[in-house]
Prior knowledge:
The protein is of the alpha+beta class. About 35% of the residues lie in helices and about 25% in strands.
Amino acid sequence: MSASRTERLLNLLIALLNTKYGLRRGELREKVYHDTTSSDDAFGRRFERDKVELRHFGFDVETVTDPGWGSDDPATTRYRIGKESNRLPDVVLTPAECTVLLLAAQLWEQAALGSAARDAVRKLQAAGGLADAELPPGVQPRIRPAGQAFEDLVAAVHGRHPVRFSYLAGSTGIEEERTVEPWGLGSRFGQWYLVGYDRARSGRRFFRLSRFTSAVEVLEKDSFTPPSSFNVREQLATLPELPVQHAVVDVARGALLGLRKHAAPAGDAEASAAVPPRPGFDRLTVPYRDAETLAEELASYGAKAVVVAPPALHTAVHRRLAAAAAFAAVPAPEIDFPEHAPAKRVRKRTSEDQLKRMLQLVPFLVHNQGLHISDIAARFGISRKELEDDLRILICSGLPEGYPDDLLDIRWDDDHVYILEDLDLKRPVRFTVDEACALLTGLQALNGLPGLDEGGALESVTLKLTAAAGEEGLKAAAVSGPEVAPKDSATLDAAREAISAGERLHLEYLSPQRDAVTERDVDPLRLYSLDSTWYLEAYCHLAKGLRNFRLDRIQGLRRTGVPAGQAAAPAGGFPEKLFTPTDDDAVVVVELTRQGAGLADDYYAERTADLPSGNLLAEIRFGSAAWLPMFVAQHGGSVRVLEPRALAEETRAWLEAALARYEPAPAARLD
Length: 671
């Protein structure tokens, strides 16, 4: 959508909003489009496209006809936009409801739904229904989606476009191309699933995103209609939990304490397998439900863990290691980060984004008169120049052939912005399906979170937003996030109490990088999560810096009675990362495939650059270079290290040594 079309759509919108009886197509052509050259048919197609575009932004164009006249006569048909039907209903929230809502909106901070959640919150703020609220320090959860596939699938689900991808079937181990009508996307058993109609198999199927072996192709020229009243959570509830199985794994003696924690010594049958235990290794049995999940973990251990049985698990680990080694062996691309390279892989802004932003900007200015222009730009996540470009378009927009008083009147000569004439754009437009989905799915994920829903705020705000979202809220049932409540709340509750009391904690902590249990005193700052994995952010006196501790790796926790030190309160508030940079970090350049591009955001890339191949360069800080080979193996062909060259060579050698342990594959299955 070009900039000129953006301006035309804005003027068309204002004209249709501010007419009581409607405007004929000829009047719109002359006064809004100023079109004197195209044919009637060409203009008609152009006008229909613009009506569809306005509907995309939440405005339905009504057709008005006089009695006795046909609705297909362009000379007599009039068009208008109702002033009430397209607007966000009034939503009045209590302070407790505002707190819950903000938590739900921030769940999607790094996901495709993140920008939609921010847009929805901005609309509520513009409508005056959202008061300022402080987030509780002990409850700050996040949802981390399943990479780029999640982004593409959400767009396809809401756009109702089929998708095509390569998929590794769990039942057969065969990789095939699938074409699917995506009905919904949700989380179950800690995994993301796509539910849809498989066209080749003529039936409903469940697809786990971790088994996608290619990028998702959205077939935008095709469309489908999902089943009526589809609810992905109800569909996923029909999936039975996989039975517990037991893998036989040889583990290097004295290593991998985390794996040993939930393993047991192998019995006589396993010990007498066709493949005898390796020298210097212990043979263990490891319980698991899903082979791919365990394979991801075992691949990250490299040569320190080797699967003996079953063969399917052996194959799954081998596949990851082989893919990682193959990618590492490909000739490296030229590394060139443009000056001022972005830290995130940001989608290029379009004129469509600009128009959507301007429609939010007017009601925001109405309810925030006199705000500094820099503060407004920060609220919308754009530069001052971009905001000024928006304002210049707005002040030139208004009623067709109107007088100066019929234009939007916005002034910012002293860097404080005031709007004096809003032309009935002062009320926010209703939620889009993405916005409704972001908020309602986020609220659903908060269910069961300890210490949150005092007074029933979660239920009441959900009911209010569902009513306000209307039909778009019903469509939100196509996406379902994971429940973020911790599996064991005892450690979380103890840490939260220490945070509230400002008291130092003593931890016994299993460090996977050191492969040891360490004891340390920490000054706790806050608790937060990614999905259902919870972290304690604290100042560690052993490391003499801020660290993040996974709650499920805390072997013991006790309060010391000692007040937390002032060093635990860094200037500027808490960092919003799972990683705190230091001068000793390893700064690494990695290459990410399209499947792995989301890792740039997950690991807070400092610079990114697109490659001609469609892959992504990313410069990332890691606290320990020794962890890099595990990171590469875990993601099985989605990432490789490019620089430092010595670290890239070490990673390649590490992968080759791990891969050598998996040749040849075991010949027999152990029952």
